Amino acid sequence: MTRAAAALRALLVTILALAIASCATAPQRTEPGPPPPGSVLRSLKLDRSAEDRILALDPEHVSGEQLHEILATTPAPYILLLHGGIWPVYLAMNSFAEFLLAMGYPEASLRRLDGERDNPYSYSPYEDSKQLAGMIAWYYERDGLRPMMVGHSQGGIQAVKVLYELAGDYQAEIPVWNPQTEAAENRTTIVDPLTGATRPVVGLSVCYASAVGAGGIAFALPNQWSMVHRLRTIPDTVDDFTGFVISVDLIALSFPGSRGADVYRHNGTAEVRNVILPSTYNHVVLPATRDLATSKAMRDWINAYVPGAKDQLQSLPEGPRDNVLWAADVWYSIKKHWTIEAQRLIRAKRAAVASQ
To answer: How far apart are CA 203 and CA 285, in angstroms?
Structure first.
């Protein structure tokens, strides 16, 4: 099967999955405003031995078995998937959502809460970045887990823009954005679910973010002009950021001779990693990765993947392989930060019990 045919197949499968998903029951709505103090920690219903098993996990080496048997017993951080700006590229990002679901990520931590049927998993780069920042605060306040962001093409620019929103570069205050009511709440602070302290939305951080194929011709669009000199510099409002660049990308204007201009760097404390993807990867359909999870052998390979490990490609199974290095790398980071956030939540719960 050619790469183009495989990508088309992935998009068609995603269309069918979205049609099925559109029949799902709408999530139960909650009242606007912060949850009752301490309610997030009290809602974590794990016995001591289950907590100990989660705390014993090595975030950088979570196997498929550990994910399904141990990590999956805990809540997972919400992931904001940000697709590119050309219609209907959102289908490719929804294909990646289907990949994550097949790998074991809970749907409740991927699905939009606004009842969107045609596009239930990803957000447009034309949506208000301030609202997305306010929504990150809303999810953290209710889950006790800092969200993640995965951006593709113009969505990658948007992901970094949201980081700058959280850093306060655009405005000093950001209202909490309720994704269920699709409206801003009348407050610019949240009650931190781990400490109980009131804190502003500005200054919050996400645990992981990534961008692939960001930059290039997308800078011609007015909504991204403010990011021309910001995109490659990552602020402190993310713990761990990965910037993916396709070796030859005519849309992002990435070429071997311009590699220095493609390098992401931090301006403070964020951990920033740069990954060069093969020139054979197609910019437009890069997130279309659902087919990777149809094979147990490929799922096992992806779960065993570790960034930078030598000779991994020599054991790559037969079958669909399009964009596997990107999907495996992002999945590695998602598993890692799911583990770290679950461990933070458990430690906060134990500290709260001990202080009573």
So the answer is: 34
